[in-house]
Write a structure and sequence with these properties.
By secondary structure, the protein is an alpha/beta fold. It is built from 8 helices and 6 strands, in the order βαβαβααβααββαα.
Length: 200
């Protein structure tokens, strides 16, 4: 029986060590019975074209394979039209009617949350778990929960990990090693399928 179900979405283009550490931290901090990983389908908020769905799905499965509570769920890739988190949460609420949902996201996503499709419904459906990197000395903006919805937010402290999917794609296009940034099976998959050979 799943009582506490985590939800973690992203492009995962490619999935990297920071994604994995965020997932692991959320499972531990919120005592999640399971964590569903959702590679996004047609991302309405992304200006660039994502890699093919089959590649991002395969890489996500490789990246999270050692987390026993994590399950990579392809439903957003299979859904036609733009991908909206509210639709996924609504489906999960119907499937796991007895479970409390915990939507895991980074601080950058949380800052944009009020621009998301039906964002207030998202707050009704799930507790929002915002990962805060331990680098508060930086000058980037910090997330503050809307006063009216403070009870729907939780904070998740994670170590500062200087890694991003954008940087990884740039490094691959420049023929530089990404060994410390992604798991070896993911690096091998990228090489075998000649992904990110050019920057975009």
């Amino acid at each position: 029986m799943i009582h506490r179900l985590g939800v973690f979405g992203g492009a995962f283009d490619p999935p990297h060590m920071a994604h994995f550490e965020l997932a692991r931290a959320a499972i531990d901090a919120f005592e999640l019975d399971a964590l569903r990983i959702f590679p996004t389908g047609q991302a309405w908020h992304k200006s660039r074209t994502l890699s093919a769905p089959e590649h991002r799905l395969a890489m996500a499965k490789l990246a999270f394979a050692t987390l026993p509570q994590a399950i990579v769920d392809p439903r957003e890739l299979d859904r036609s039209g733009p991908t909206y988190t509210v639709d996924t949460l609504t489906e999960l609420k119907a499937e796991f009617s007895g479970a409390e949902l915990f939507l895991v996201m980074g601080e950058d996503q949380a800052l944009a949350l009020t621009s998301w499709h039906q964002w207030e419904e998202i707050l009704r459906l799930a507790i929002i778990c915002v990962a805060e990197r331990d680098d508060s000395g930086g000058d980037r903006p910090r997330f503050t929960a809307p006063q009216a919805y403070k009870s729907r937010f939780r904070r998740l402290q994670i170590p500062a990990l200087p890694v991003s999917a954008t940087d990884i794609r740039i490094r691959i296009a420049a023929h530089l090693s990404v060994a410390p940034l992604v798991f070896e099976p993911v690096a091998r998959y990228i090489e075998d399928h000649h992904l990110y050979q050019t920057t975009r």
